[in-house]
Write a structure and sequence with these properties.
Helices cover about 45% and strands about 25% of the residues. It is of the alpha+beta class.
């Protein structure tokens, strides 16, 4: 081999080595590939489980005597060392504290049902968040000899505990090898601690096992009277380990593949939630939310397929916390007390209090005021009344300013009418606008003065709109004829499905909503008299009266508390309007405005630029008209 050939081989070798190093995948790419592989393995596990169930169902059609022998043989073939745990009798054991009653099932070693002791359904039945027939909980894994195991299909044995707050299910393969499901429930707590503990399982499972597939599914029952409203506030929420809270669609079926690590996943209805909070995090996640048919006894169908870290030798406990309880902002916020910001759970984010600024108004103003009154008053109708009065007092300066601005515009209306007649026609629209603005400037009137105060009140209105339907404190609290302030107060009901009416209006009539509509019509009539007439928009008056009627159809299925608040708020506004009329002399107001016109006015920089722009537009318009002629 000559020298040139040798150099050529060396260069080729170096190029191959360099190309390999440059195209070596990064750690992030390797992690993502592993996550995708775990997800594919999870899907393969589910498919294998379905195939196994099909084979087992087919085997059940043969003779019973032969079937027993066949089942035993197939069980040993399919489950291997876990085969003895596929036969047994399901036993239910009650595990409870002062808030929760859990039924523990030996089949699957799982929580079979959850009952909240302090709550009942809208028809006074015990409130179960879920039960064994419509839920799933368990882990899936392969054994060392490549057998697929689902813990849901195995029978566990309870282990006697000296601690009354602990409950343990065990799969004991021998005296030195087992798998434990450990549950802990402390008094006065809605949280259930779950630990998955293995002991010397390295001889049973592959030695490279670092995680088990986790499956959790819950069908949420309908607990409230208003199904349509409960559906709207039910949903699946989840929090990334190092990021914010997200959610799936609340109005349609949706499935999301989330490769990133999740800290918790929440299945919720309007007022209650089942939340799984991982100690280390959920990986390779598949989240599913489905809307149940209107004829179903359930609202939503939720599912989580994930991967959970696992230690074969049992040196480290791996698990999660379950929260089964009410969606109460103050309670959920308490879990982050004295916790560093980067480690907070932010479970309170599942309470639908609006986004960004609206949520700040609720958590910073409305909720503290609501809780403060709740310490001293037991009647929530009176609390809402007091809150309405406080809010009205707080925004009184804005309301007064808005009325004064409208009064100024009204007393100037004859002069504005004279300007409109002097510059009639579309070709003089520019001159008409300039003359009107000049009149306002000289009189010291801000045309937006009546709108800006109302604009500042909008956050409070939107805050109330989201606050009342999500406040569990109002659930099943009565006031006057309303037996439950969290839902509609039907005084007239009917049966049957009326097209469009039943779907959007419902088969009932809410009295507080009707009163709110009537007061809004009265307020519209009073307010229209207070506003300057506008002959250019004659249809506006009709539209103003149509809006309150639309509120009847929009809010008829909303909570009685919200309709009661709007009813009282509008009634107070009507009274304020009449008081303003009695206290304000419009003749003196007009004299003051005329006096203002005599005073020299210094134009602001913005006003001067705006006037110059109008003049330029006017000159350009005249030039275009000359060219056309």
């Amino acid at each position: 081999m000559d020298k040139n050939t040798l150099i050529g081989f060396v260069l080729i070798f170096l190029i191959i080595i360099g190309f390999s190093l440059l195209n070596k995948p990064s750690q992030e790419q390797l992690d993502a590939a592993q996550a995708q592989q775990r997800q594919r393995d999870s899907i393969a596990l589910v498919e294998a489980a379905n195939q196994a169930r099909i084979q087992e169902n087919a085997a059940q059609t043969s003779d019973s005597t032969v079937q027993t022998a066949t089942d035993t043989s197939q069980s040993a073939l399919h489950y291997g060392v876990f085969a003895p745990f596929t036969q047994g009798e399901k036993q239910l054991t009650t595990f409870e504290n002062d808030l929760l009653e859990l039924q523990m099932s030996s089949k699957g070693g799982r929580i079979a049902s959850v009952r909240l002791k302090e709550f009942v359904t809208h028809d006074s039945l015990p409130l179960f968040l879920y039960d064994e027939q419509v839920s799933d909980f368990g882990f899936s894994f392969f054994t060392a000899d490549n057998r697929l195991i689902h813990t849901q299909e195995l029978y566990f044995q309870p282990v006697e505990q000296t601690d009354a707050n602990a409950f343990v299910y065990r799969l004991a393969l021998n005296e030195d090898t087992w798998m434990d499901f450990v549950y802990r429930l402390q008094p006065g707590d809605y949280r259930v601690k779950f630990d998955l503990q293995g002991h010397n399982l390295q001889s049973v499972l592959p030695v490279n096992t670092r995680a088990l597939d986790f499956n959790w599914a819950v069908k949420m029952r309908q607990q409230e009277k208003g199904r349509q409203f409960e559906e709207r506030y039910s949903g699946l929420n989840y929090k990334f380990a190092a990021d914010d809270v997200e959610k799936l669609s609340e109005s349609k079926d949706e499935t999301a593949n989330v490769a990133n690590t999740l800290k918790w996943v929440s299945f919720k209805d309007q007022f209650f939630a089942c939340i799984a909070i991982a100690d280390q995090g959920f990986n390779s996640n598949i989240l599913t939310s489905k809307v149940e048919p209107a004829t179903s006894a359930y609202i939503k169908d939720y599912a989580l397929t994930s991967s959970l870290d696992f230690d074969l030798k049992g040196n480290q406990q791996v698990g999660m916390q379950f929260y089964f309880g009410p969606i109460k902002h103050q309670l959920l916020k308490r879990f982050d007390k004295d916790v560093p910001a980067d480690q907070q759970l932010n479970l309170d984010k599942i309470v639908p209090l609006g986004g960004s600024f609206i949520r700040w108004a609720n958590t910073g103003v409305i909720l503290p005021m609501f809780n403060l009154f709740g310490r001293f008053i037991n009647n929530y109708g009176l609390i809402i009344l007091l809150m309405t009065l406080v809010i009205k007092i707080f925004i009184f300066p804005l309301t007064y300013k808005s009325y004064i601005s409208s009064a100024k515009m009204r007393v100037l209306q004859p002069q504005i009418t004279e300007i409109n007649e002097r510059f009639a026609g579309t070709e003089k629209a520019q001159e008409r606008s300039q003359a009107t603005m000049e009149l306002y400037r000289k009189a010291g009137v801000n045309p937006m003065g009546g709108c800006l105060p109302m604009l500042f009140q909008m956050p409070i209105l939107f805050a109330m709109y989201s606050f009342f339907p999500s406040s569990i404190e109002l659930r099943q609290e009565s006031f006057l004829w309303a037996t439950d302030l969290s839902t509609y107060d039907a005084v007239l009901t009917w049966s049957g499905n009326i097209p469009l009416v039943t779907k959007y209006f419902g088969n009932h009539l809410s009295l507080f909503c009707l009163l709110m509509t009537i007061t809004n019509i009265v307020y519209t009539h009073v307010n229209m008299k207070s506003q300057p007439t506008n002959n250019q928009m004659p249809g506006m008056k009709t539209m103003m009266y149509i809006m309150p009627v639309m509120f009847l159809f929009i809010f008829n299925q909303y909570s009685a508390a919200l309709s009661f608040y709007f009813f009282v708020s509008t009634l107070i506004t009507i009274l304020q309007t009449y008081l303003f009329r009695l206290s304000i002399n419009e003749e003196k107001l007009l004299l003051q405005l005329n006096e203002n016109k005599k005073k020299p006015k210094k134009k602001s920089g913005f006003a001067a630029r705006l006037e110059e722009m109008q003049k330029q537009q006017q000159r350009a318009l005249k030039e275009q008209q000359k060219k056309r002629k």
